[in-house]
Design brief:
This protein is mainly alpha-helical. The protein has one domain (82-410): Orthogonal Bundle (Citrate Synthase, domain 1). It is 50% helix and 5% strand. It is built from 17 helices and five strands. The strands form two sheets. Strands 3-4-5 form a three-stranded antiparallel sheet. The protein has a two-stranded antiparallel ribbon with strand order 1-2. The longest helix has 27 residues, at 158-184. Bound molecules: carboxymethyl coenzyme *A. Carboxymethyl coenzyme *A binds at residues 236, 267-269, 271, 295, 301-308, 356, 358, 361-363.
Length: 428
Amino acid sequence: MSQNTLTITDNRTGKSYEIPIKNGTIRALDLRQIKLDENDFGMMTYDPAFTNTASCTSKITFIDGDRGILMYRGYPIEELAEKSTYLETAYLILHGELPTRAQLDDWTWHITHHTFIHESIKKFLDGFHYDAHPMGMLISTVAALSTFYKDAKDIFNADSRRKQTYRLIGKMPTLSAFAYRHSLGMPLVYPDNDLSYTGNFLNMLFKTTEVKYKPNPTLEHALDVLFILHADHEQNCSANAMRSVGSSHVDPYCATAAATAALYGPLHGGANEEVLHMLREIGSVKNVPEYIKHVKAKEKLLMGFGHRVYKNYDPRAKIIKRIAYEVFEVMGRNPLIDIALECERIALEDDYFVSHKLYPNVDFYSGLIYEAMGFPISMFTVLFAIPRTAGWIAQWQELLLDAEQKISRPRQVYLGYDKRSYIPIDHR
Ligand code: CMC
């Protein structure tokens, strides 16, 4: 008997089955042979929320949640945050290798020259209420891009995928900035090709009457590092949405809209917004113990804490905490940081958090930086969506090129009624 197998004995029938093990997993379909009799459908696994199911093989991002390790294509996040730029990291995530100088120049040129959006999109934005949430506007306008680029449907053509990649990474900041300016009732600012990716984004957000916007280098760099940290995170809720929707072979704009919608939820990218609301609700350092009591009584969540995969300090949160102080030096200290630090201090010593392995995640400190930089809370999740676009496209492309993948279609365990007859309305 091969050592790389799992022997399963079905005690209902007494039969034994030898199931191959590959990469530490067994194939769920191999369980189908386990049957009570010929008419039995066969054994399935039940895994709500995919807590122990690998839905794909991937070579993009590695996470070791117990040791707090995150790597893109084998490069530790700490090194990329220190030495790389967002566009270089996006190239790495999408292409698998760091670019040469010529490749990086070419990549940057193409992204920079795809930042403009069709003027008609401004008309959609006009249809939104002044207080529309920018994530709602972003989801809608990304989906709308699908109607402009018919070539995007040619998803198995590498040239077409490359073109849509330039467009998506180039246009996400423009769509986001336009949504923000719309909500302020301010004139829209067009992209400036002389500026870096994050410098141009700051320009489109914050330019007022100056002829040429000059981004503050500390803020531009801080945002770039934050973008690196948010670029991919393997099979999270939005990446899974991108893959699941993409598996129907829809164009990448519609799939990205679905991924952006998944990110919007408060348990995913929307958590950075919730952290700020929570810190404001706590209001002062002295109120932290009382708040923690409510968390432990399960009346509230400590937003920005906990993670499905990290059972140790999220390595991104460590870097963000350091960057926060760099931003505070330029913009002034965000007073909410003291409340955040006190939450962290108490939580890390408290048995509830220790035993549940709850540590700060990426969203715990990012909102404090964004607020110090002058972003309204409603823009926080947008600041997650822009850099995550590179990761979503990489996940989507990997899916398309994986011969083992098919349209996503989970099974269910039906526990509803057996067959019954329709009851006329007067007899119910
Ligand atoms: N505060 C208090 N208790 C918590 C928290 C929290 N933030 N997170 C988890 N728990 C408890 C939970 O009540 C449960 O306790 P018990 O076992 O006694 O019933 C246990 O820890 C396990 O929690 P879970 O909800 O089953 O874990 P999960 O893997 O399904 O959820 C999570 C992960 C991130 C959704 C969850 O930790 C959470 O809701 N955190 C707050 C929201 C948040 O910060 N989200 C951002 C995630 S990181 C960025 C991203 O990926 O978008």
